[in-house]
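Look over this record before class:
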Amino acid sequence: MLTRRGVSILSSTLGLVAASTLAFDGVFSTVALFVLSILGIESILYINSSRRLHTVKVEVKSLARRAFVGDDILLTIEFTNPGPTLGPLLAIEKIPYGFKIDAPNDFWIESLSKGETKTVEYNLKALQMGNWKVGNTELIITDRFGMFKTSRSIQSHSEIQVYPSMRVGEEILRGRVHIGMRPLKRSTVSTSHGSEFSGIREYYPGDDYRQVAWKAMAKSPMRLPKTKEQEYEQSLNVTLVILNTDTTGEGEIGGRKLDAAAELAIVLAHLAVKTGGEFQVVYSSYGAVDRTDGSPLEIASRLCNLSPDPNLDLDSMINSAITASKPRSLILVVLDSPYPRTVDPMILRKATIKYQFLHALILDTTSFIRYDGEDVRVTQASEIIGNWELGHLEALLTQLASGGISAQICSQSMLVIRALDAFSRSSLVLET
């Protein structure tokens, strides 16, 4: 294929030849013919090389087949030429939108001799959960003057599965004391009527003073109050219902509504490990209700491919949550209902008839979709739309409250905190 540069070079050369011919100038004619001959030789070499472009072997290697959001992944690409010398070659790596590369994604290979292998390495940063094909390459061969080019698209079979970040859940649960929430205990609570003795921990306001461990407090360096832990017979089980409607794909890369819901699931999975309760996630997949449970890592591996489902059936999902949840359970519903969508409170109300705790977490779309441009008119329009959306969510909150449904509007940064608040309130009710 002739490039723009090639058109300019050839037209200029032919113009020089024509001018020198018309002027009957031997010097100019000699120069023009010399340049034309060089271009002709280069064109012949290019044609021979372009025919052999398909013989170049490309192999993608990655040490990691699985990663977490935020991880750096080293990718190695090897180019091997089994035939005669080729070059120059331009390789352009097609980076999936779920990753970021700090270096340029294109590089030149000056020449590739027969049997020679050249290796290129670069780092990718995982930004969004999912299954991603990496190493798709566009290989371009050109002549030394850039007049012609031939491209070949190479599809890679190398996949990397990116899980939601596990660090966020651990850090949030570790910081619960600092945000004013009652600390979590592994299947234990302080009670004078508890069962077997479990261990010693720090004293927190509200603990039974009769369980203060005076000897342990005296031995501590800072003389901090200590209290005894007793094994608790019943733990709060949690069912997270993710209503992954077609609008849950909204948001920036790695900051979509689905990503926030998956992050919440990881936090609650960590919470189940700490409290001894059971945890499961209910979501929709191609119109069918699906459930998953297990360790935080197992939850992460199963939710990494969570995608918006336009065929989601709310009634079936709530029925599935009711069936799967045990008595004394907390059902958390992640609800995305931007304007003008509404939710029938009676569908959620069914879960509160048999079970004591149900809490809806309404996603605030304005916190996931932001406009940071400099156009004043667009900024004003986005503010008007945002205020309209917040008014719609407030009306939805009132509608759910009238149906006896406990609910909160959650921004992107507050979703996990709101869910943990609901868990803490339900745990306190359960203890009493």
User: Anything to note?
Assistant: The first helix runs from residue 4 to 22. Residues 177-196, 230-234 have pLDDT under 50 and may be disordered.
